[in-house]
Each structure stands twice: as C-alpha cells, then as structure tokens.
Amino acid sequence: MWKNFIEKVLQSASKCHQIHRSISMLSPGEDEDGLQVPDMSLFSPESDEISFSNESLDMSKMLSILDANSLVEDSNSAKVLGKNRGYYGVGLWVLASFINHSCDPNARRLHIGDHVLVHASRDIKAGEEITFPYFDVLLQLSNRKEMATNWGFRCNCKRCNFEENMCSKQEMREIEVGSERGFDVGGVVYRLEEGMRRWMVRGKGKGYLRASFWAPYSKIFESQNLMKRWGRRIPAMEAVVESVVDAVGSDERVLKVLMEGLKRSGGGGVGDMERAMKLGRGVYGKVMKKQALRTLLEQCNQEQS
C-alpha cells in the first residue's frame, strides 16, 4: 500500500507543477525552526506556476516529506458512514499537514471517503492556532515525550510546560510510578486529587493532569466495585470528563465513559443527552445530523454493555 501511494504521489507531482510546489512546502522532518508559513494564496487554483515550472523532483526530499506528513486513516469514517469497517488507507492532505501538534489540541481530523475534515474538538478563541494530536494525548508526560521524539520534535505546549514543573514534586513522581505499575488505581486517583488540592491546581491545570492519568480514572468509572469503594473520595465522573474535554478536547474514550456512566446512573434526560451530544460533536464533528449522532451515541452505550 505504501509503495503504491508513493508512486501515485510522485506521478501526480511530476505532471502537475502546483501539486509539486504544494508538497515541497511541507516539512521533511528536519530543521522545523527554519520553516516559514506559506502564503495561502499559493494554494489557489489561479496561483502563478511560472516560478516553479523548471524545478525538478528531489526524490530524497519528497520521500522524507511523505514519511513525515502522510496520514493513516482511522476508523471514524466507518462509524459515521456505517460501512467499510475493514477499510484502511494512507494519504497526503497538504493543508491538513500544515497543522501542528499540541498535547492540548483544539481540533481533530475525521476521514470521510477520500476527504479529511478538520473540526474543532473544543471551543477555539479568535486568533488561537488550530492544532491536533499527532499521537495519543491521554498519556503521561514521559510517554508523550517519547512519542514526540519519534516524530522528531519536542512539544512546548502549555500543557507540557505545566507538567514539566509539576514533575519536580516528589509525590507526583510517586503517583506516576504507581500509575505505570497499574496497582490500586483508586489510590493513584485519590493521591492525585489530594495533591492538586494541596498544590492549589486550578482550571485547566486539573484537566491536564486528569488527562495524563486518564487510564486509572477510566478504570474506576468503568467498574461498579471501584466506584462503590472510591466514589465519595474522588470527583464525580461528569466533573472529570468536563475538565479533561476542556483541557485536551473531545475523545472517543472519554465519550464512552460518559455514556456508560449516564446509563449506570439512570441518566438520559434532556440535559444529559445534550451534554453527550456536545461531546459527540467534538469527537465526530458537526458533519453528522442530530439523529445520526444520537444513534452513534447509543451504539457507544451498547458496545459498553
């Protein structure tokens, strides 16, 4: 599949100067700081091709660009369209490839057929850069650092800088070790919540840390026994979900925990469904009609039961 993809891209670039020029503007995975933001008018069909018409293909650079910028299609399109569940593929969407990574992203991508849609996963302020995750951001800082290194960059987003400062605390390191070993998830969450209270962590800071330790939180919320044991000593599931989504945007795993929690508690009123619908739009975008999204949320419930 990868070989066929490369051949098609190279063939298209050799026949169309505009495609060649657009791809050549992308990062080859090196010298990120030296890259300039291109003029968006260059992507217009009416843009001038004369200045680029005599430049030949640099095969080595082109392969590096494809390696760094190609996107593998995830399974969301199958869930939205309700078909082609076994389908997968790889492609290059030039404009989407200019979107940077952040560990507190505000957008997601959704594949529909041959198209990729980029949509907001949480509220975006005017002038705020659009970012989406290159890898799983519901992981601890050390894991995210390792994954960023594999991509060839170091993430300097607000969340990573905040957690870097928190990691200097001895208790935080102990909580991380406990989470990595998978022992007593309730104890990990309880110590983290008590630590945030003593350290006076507020607002998005709570969401950042809860997102980093989402694994133990989700295990508690998905277990009736653990909820009975720890429920009164940790925040309500709805509060945790809201803070995580506010910090790192919507995520399908967070959505499933919310739907399961609402089902278990007997929720399902207008307010509960509106909350789930808002989170669902952050995961799947506004491309879906309301009834289709409601059906998809109900499927999440069935998969959990």
TrEMBL record:
SET domain boundaries: 15-135
InterPro entries: Gramillin-biosynth_MTr, SET_dom, SET_dom_sf
Top-rank lineage group of the source organism: Eukaryota
Protein name: SET domain-containing protein
Species, as recorded: Ilex paraguariensis (yerba mate)
